[in-house]
Amino acid sequence: MEAIDIVKRFADFIEKEYYSQLLENIRKDNPFLVIDFKELNVVELDLANILLEKPEETIKAGEIAIGQFDLDDAGHVKLRFKNLPEVSKIRIVDSRVKHLGKFISLVGEVSRKSDVYLDCVAARFECPACANIINVLQTTGNFREPTRCGCGRKGKFTLLEKERVDMQELTIIDSVESVEEGDAYQELAVVLKGDLTSPDFNKRVYNINHTVIVNGYFEELEIFLKSGGKSTKSTKIFIANYVEPLLEQDKEFYPTSEEIEEFKRMSKEQGFYDKLLQGLAPAIYGHERVKEGILLQLVGGVRRKKHGNRFRRGDVHIGLIGDPSTGKSELILRSIDLLPRSMFVIGKGASAVGIAGGVKKNSYVEGYTADPGAMAMANRSILGIDELDKFDKDDIDALNTGMEQQFIKIDKGGVHAKYEAVTRVLIGANPKLGRFDPYAPLSEQFGIKPSVLSRLDLIFPMKDTPDEIKDKKMAEFILDSDTNNLSFNSEENIFYDTNKLRKYIQAVARLKPEFTEEAKQEIKNYYVKMRVANIKEEGISSVAIAPRQLQALERLAEASAKIFFRADIKQEDSKRAIELMDYYLKSVAMDPETGKVDIDRINTGITALDRNYLHRLKEIIDELEDKLGKTIPIEDIIYAAKTNDVTEEKIKEGLEKLKRIGDIMEVRSGFISKI
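The structure corresponding to this sequence follows.
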C-alpha cells in the first residue's frame, strides 16, 4: 500500500470513528488520540496489518492524516494504539532480532525512571555554498548532521534550528509471573516522548514497582567507540507508543462489594479472630504471638497527619530474630504473598537490588538515573528482609531512614532523587554465633544497629528449645503435612484460601478508626505503669518503655479495630496491643541480671546496670588521673575496680565500651587516658 493511500485511509477511518474524540482532545489541550487496535482491525484490516509490520512509518502517516483536518493544533496530535493482538505480545526475555521494527506489546514491572530530558527529533541546516536548507531527522541517541548537499558540497553545514520534544527513559523488567524457573530477570530501556512524559500521565501509570503494558517497537542503537568509530555491536531500545497500568494482577487482592459485606458479617462471629490467625500461615506450627503480630502488621495502623506536613506513620515494623530453622523465612515469604507489589530481599543476594538504591547509566541519553531500591519499590506494601545480619552498612543505614521518615533519598553521581517509602518492614535475622543468647545485647548478637532495632514496633525471639511435648506435636504436624494427611480445607476455614485472606486484608486496610476514651486510658495506664516501675532513689534507673513504644501501641490498637470493621477503637483493641507489647518487652528487653524490663537494651545496646557500672568506672579513672596524671595504667584500673561481683573480664569490657563512645583512648599498650 502506497504512503498516500495509508494517509487517506487513516483520514477516512478517524473521521468516521474518532472525529468527536479528536475534537474533545484538542479542546482539552491533550495532544494525542488513542485508537483501539481491535476497532481498526475490524474496519481497516489491511491498515492494521501494515501497522504491525511497519509501525514507525504507518503511525507517521496517520499523524499526517490528522494534520490535514481543518483544526487548530491538529498537526501536533500524536497517534496512540491500545489493545494490540495476543500474537504481538512477548516477554522481554524473549525479544530477538526478528522483533526489530515490529509493533509489539510488552508487559513488565517499572524498576526506575529518569528525569524528563529535551530530545532533538529533527534539525535544520543551511549549506554555506548554495543556501540550501537541509532537514535531518534525528532517529538515534546520537546527533546527526548532513554529510553532503545537493550542490555537491561536503563538510560543515550551519545549524539553523533544532526541533525538540520532551523525553524520558523508563526501565522495565519481566514481571514475576512471567519469569519461568531457571530464567534470569531481563531489563529493558523504554523511551517515552511528548505527551507520554506529562506529569499526570507519569503519576497515573509509571509508579515504581507497578506492572505496565507498553506498546511500541524496538529500534537499533549504535554503539560508538572511544576512537569515534562505530562498534560492530549494537544495543536496542524500545520506543513506546502507548503505556497503561496493568491492574489485572491486583484483582485477586481486592474484594467486591458482596465480599466486603460477607467479611463484615463474619467479623461478628464467634472464633473469627482465631480463624484469621489460622489462615495466616497454616503450614507453620505454633508461634501464635508472632502470627498475631504479623496479622496486625499486614492490616496496619492509621497514617495520621501531624503538625505541618509531617505524618505519624501507620506502618508496623516487626523483627523476627533467633535460631535457624524456626520458620522465620517461611513467615516472611508468606507475608509478602498476601500484599500486592511486595518485595523480598535476602542477605548478600540483595546487592543487585539493594534497600536504598543507587544510580545507573541511561541507555539512550548521556547521564545517570536514580535506581530505587527495595524500600521504595515496596511503597504502600511490605518489604520482607531475610538475614539482615548479612547486609552491607549502607543498606542498613538506608533502612534506618526509610523505616521512620518513610522516604529514601539518593544523592550520587550528580543525581538527586527522593522516593516515597510508606513501607512496612518485616525483618528476619540469625545470631552470629548460631543460637540466640538471652544474656547478650541484640545489637551485638545480630550485628544490627540499635537505631534500627529501636524502630521496630515488635521484636519476636524465635527459639529452638528442646521440649518433649512440644517437639512431639511439631513432629506429628510436619509428618502429617508432608505425607498429605493434613489438609487445609477452605470449607472448614474460609481463610485457608489465600485469595480470600488477601481480600480480607484489603477490605479493612483503608479503614480509619478513632480512639475511644476508654481505649486511650487503657494504653495510658499501661505506659505510665511501665515508666515508673523501675524508679529507684540512687543510681541510674532502667526505663521499661519509651515514647516509641507508646506510638507502636497506638498503631497496633488501630490495626486490631480495623480487623473487626470497627469505626471506634475499643478497650479490647488496646488490651490486644498491650499483650503483644508486653510479650515483646519481656522476651527481649528483660535484663537477665536485674530481672527488670530495660528498653535501652534494645534502643542503645547499653542497660541501666551497664550505665551505672560505666559511671563508676569513669569515677575510678578520674580518681587515678588525680593521683597518677593523664596516662593511667590499665592494671591500676583493674585493681581499683575489681570486686567479688566485678571480674577482670567485665572491667576490660567496660573500658572497651568507654573507648567506643569516645570517653577514653589507649595511648599505648596497657595505658589509657581521658579524651
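DSSP finds 23 helices and 28 strands in the chain.
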